[in-house]
Amino acid sequence: MVRTATPDALAGLRSVVSSWARGVGLPADVLVDLLLAVGEAAANVVDHAYRSGPPGPLEVELGVRRRGRGRVVAARIVDRGRWRPSDVSERDRGRGLPMIRALAQYLDVVVNPTGTEVCLELAIP
């Protein structure tokens, strides 16, 4: 799904993620973790990716995959903006990626000149 990276888009994104998760039968605890992780990554796009211009695209892809003997829910959150390193003076910020890292069994953040891509996986018990 693609949305414009605005604060108003985040509530709609949560609704779409919830509906998708229920549709594929994710357990409630995995749904909560997925909403937190995807919501935080998407909020980072809204807050940071397009600071120097108008809001751009926020892309979210979701899927269920086999991983080893189990299954995972995979999420990919992509923007086409610019990475903005955290400002050390913003002491009340900067907890999003550590939170995602604590929830996910896999997290990868790729920054390149065309944007930022966050890929994460949550185990499905």
Q: Work out the oligomeric state of the chains in this entry.
A: single chain
Give the overall shape, derived from the CA principal axes.
globular
What spatial order of strands do you see in the largest sheet? 1-2-3-5-4
Rg of Cα set? 14 Å
What's the main sheet like?
5 strands, antiparallel
Number of strands: 5
| Class of secondary structure makeup | alpha+beta
Helix content: 25-40%
Please give a quick description of this structure:
This protein has 125 residues and is α+β, with helices and mostly antiparallel strands. The protein is built from three helices and five strands; from the N terminus they run βααββαββ.
Question: How would you describe what is shown here?
Answer:
The chain has helices at about 5-25, 30-50, 95-105, and strands spanning about 1-5, 55-65, 70-80, 105-110, 115-125. With about 120 residues, it is an alpha+beta fold. It is built from three helices and five strands, in the order βααββαββ. The protein has one domain (about 1-125): 2-Layer Sandwich (Heat Shock Protein 90), CATH 3.30.565. Helix 1 (about 5-25) packs antiparallel against helix 2 (about 30-50) and helix 2 runs antiparallel to helix 3 (about 95-105). It has a five-stranded antiparallel beta sheet, with helices on one face. A hairpin with a 2-residue loop joins strand 2 (about 55-65) and strand 3. The protein is globular and about 45 Å long. Helix content is about 40%, strand content about 35%.
